[in-house]
Amino acid sequence: MFVFIIPIKSRKVSNNWQKTCQLFERTLKSVCSQKSTNFSVLVVCHEKPEVSFSSDKVQYFQVEFPPPDKKGGSDRDWYFKREIDKNRKLLMGLCHAKHLSPNYVMPVDADDCISDEIVGYSEKNPGSNGWFLSQGYVYNQVTNRLVRKYRKFNLMCGTSHIINYDLIDLPDNPEYNRGYGYYRDHVIFLKHDHIRRIMQEKGKPLAPMPFPGAVYITENSENIYFSSDRPIYGNKIENFLGNRLVTPKIQEKFSLNLPEKLEVLVGSC
């Protein structure tokens, strides 16, 4: 059994709840479009998202702890409050996953899309420690640009790691009212740019997924981490030379609903 965990922000901290729900619904459809049916999806939220899509693969868990409060503090404080909220939900999802006896777990950000081959690939490689997504796409919803990333995709996108569930250390009595340090110690997915190193140090290295595994959605006004000046598109020469139109195959593989005309920028970064 493969388990996806999707934490969702509260309506109280969303910039636009309707848009949050629309983005989540696209993500949910993408996750549920796996070619293999041996998976479950755990959605951890405060308020259940308002979506029309449903599947018997999906379970919703509504948390009782309060959403983060923006009042007082700096922008940095607000960032960490949202980070803590996300990882409280991830921890709850990881603990609930135990009842499904999963082989692998993968967190998915509530606005990203994933390849339809992920579960099937894990089934063909049983007993692996897990994988990191070194390849993927970055989609900018403002510019309608889709950029192919050939390496280091896992350093920029939270939807980028799959880990053997038996290798994840979880607390016997999880707590959901603790600070950042607690979740740093108990949720391996807290810092996606360090997961590969952590697993390597444990003597359980992750392997690179041999195909683009996800689409990182940016500039949708609901991202926690993305800033418009973040250098994700490579240099201008690579972008210019690699400019081409997206193919229907990409849209189908990731269940990515896009405008008819979308640029695909293929760079070597």
Structure description:
The chain is of the alpha/beta class and 269 residues long. The protein has one domain: Alpha-Beta Complex (Spore Coat Polysaccharide Biosynthesis Protein SpsA, Chain A), CATH 3.90.550. Helix content is 27%, strand content 20%. It has seven helices and 13 strands. A seven-stranded mixed sheet has the order 3-2-1-4-9-6-10, with helices on one face. Strands 5-11-7-8-13-12 form a six-stranded mixed sheet. The radius of gyration is 18 Å and the shape is globular. Mean pLDDT is 87; it is low at 224-233, 237-244 and 259-263.
CATH architectural designation: Alpha-Beta Complex
Q: How big a fraction of the residues is strand?
A: 15-25%
In the CATH scheme, the class would be: Alpha Beta
> Which runs of at least 5 residues are low in confidence (pLDDT < 50)?
224-233, 237-244, 259-263
| Cα shape | globular
What class do helices, strands and sheet pairing give?
alpha/beta
Write the topology of this structure.
Layout: E1 2-7, H1 17-31, E2 39-45, E3 58-62, H2 75-97, E4 104-107, E5 113-114, H3 118-124, E6 130-132, E7 136-140, E8 145-149, E9 161-164, H4 180-186, H5 195-201, E10 207-208, E11 214-218, H6 236-241, E12 243-245, H7 248-254, E13 263-266
Parallel strand pairs: 1-2, 1-4, 2-3, 6-10, 7-11, 8-13
Antiparallel strand pairs: 4-9, 5-11, 6-9, 7-8, 12-13
